[in-house]
Design a protein that fits this description.
Distance between the termini: 38 Å
Radius of gyration: 24 Å
Largest sheet: 6 strands, mixed
Helix content: 25-40%
CATH architecture of the largest domain: 3-Layer(aba) Sandwich
Order of helices and strands: EEEHEHEHHHEHEHEEHEHEHHEHEHH
Structural class: alpha/beta
CATH superfamily of the largest domain: P-loop containing nucleotide triphosphate hydrolases
């Protein structure tokens, strides 16, 4: 596991990480989220022993990473894909890492093949694209066949095929029982990849929860379609709930309101209660769908007061409208 306990990081008067505590467990891909300046990269550097905490600790399998004799066999990490010697070949770069950690040289060829760089293994890294460097960084993280893996923005520079590849790779690694921590600003990808999320803002923990549960906290409404929407709307309003007709902009259908789609957006009553009410009234339902926020929307709401540089109200309102479409 990765354990962060009461971690505090200070730079002069600035508190970058503030008494942060969370655990990254094996068998899951855990997303590590936060706005720019939230302290994500600082926390990951502390896990690797690259930053000295003012208080608290960050442990890998119960030990400080710097105390491990062969650290790459315990934990693999990618923080900066560009932090490589451009004059070396991919094979030579991984070979040096392997020798430094007592790793069999045969692993070099294996991980180069695994990340799709076997054909360019003897090319100098300085000529690699960002996506190729990301793949090389991932190969380095996998080199020691570690049980714990940590990646900071590994999707940067990858094309759609590469993004799908790493999504499948991370899931398969977690499926083998490994611990996987993934930091990324690509919310749609995290929603598809991460089963658990840790959200921080201004260095403090905001949420530590399953991905689905986070979105469910921000349930917007229930979409209801029935054969008699006007009567159902009247009954629902009589029970004190908010009812709005579904218009064409929400469905892509022609026509508006209840006459156009038969859809209602209901707030203040859950799906089960709406279904029971419709049953008692003898109204057949065609659809009953709770609509929760996306991971991106939930993240924006959670971190609204934690952003380092925020847009003005007008721009923020426009951005939220775009997300909701």
């Amino acid at each position: 596991m990765i354990e962060v306990r009461g971690l505090t990081m200070r730079y002069g008067r600035t508190v970058a990480v503030d008494d942060l505590t969370f655990t990254v467990k094996p068998g899951l891909v855990t997303g590590f989220l936060g706005p720019n300046g939230a302290g994500k990269s600082t926390t990951m550097r502390a896990v690797l022993g690259l930053e000295i905490p003012a208080a608290g600790e960050a442990l890998v399998d119960g030990h400080a990473y710097a105390s491990l004799r062969r650290p790459m066999r315990t934990m693999g990490a990618l923080l900066d894909a560009g932090a490589v010697h451009g004059g070396r070949t991919a094979r030579a770069h991984l070979g040096c890492l392997a020798r430094s950690n007592g790793i069999d040289s045969r692993r070099v060829a294996a991980v180069l093949d695994q990340v799709g760089l076997a054909e360019v293994a003897d090319r100098r890294i300085g000529g690699f694209s960002l996506g190729m460097k990301q793949r090389l960084g991932i190969a380095a993280a996998l080199l020691g066949d570690p049980a714990v893996l940590m990646f900071d923005e590994p999707l940067n520079g990858l094309d759609p095929e590469g993004i799908r590849w790493i999504r499948d790779l991370l899931r398969s690694l977690a499926g083998e029982g490994r611990t996987v921590l993934l930091s990324s600003h690509l919310m749609n990808e995290l929603a598809l990849t991460a089963e658990h999320v840790v959200v921080i803002g201004r260095g403090r923990l905001i949420a530590d929860t399953p991905t689905g549960a986070l979105a469910a906290q921000f349930q917007r409404d229930v979409l209801v379609r029935s054969a008699d929407p006007e009567r159902l709307a009247e009954i629902l309003r009589a029970h004190g709930v908010s009812v709005a007709p579904e218009d064409a902009s929400d469905t892509g259908m022609h026509g508006t309101g209840m006459h156009g789609t038969g859809g209602l957006f209901v707030r203040g009553m859950d799906a089960a209660e709406i279904g029971e009410l419709a049953l008692r009234a003898g109204i057949a339902l065609r659809e009953l769908t709770p609509r929760s926020a996306s991971l991106e929307e939930a993240f924006m709401e959670l971190t609204e007061d934690s952003v380092e540089y925020g847009a003005g109200p007008a721009a923020r309102s426009a951005a939220v409208s775009e997300v909701a479409r």
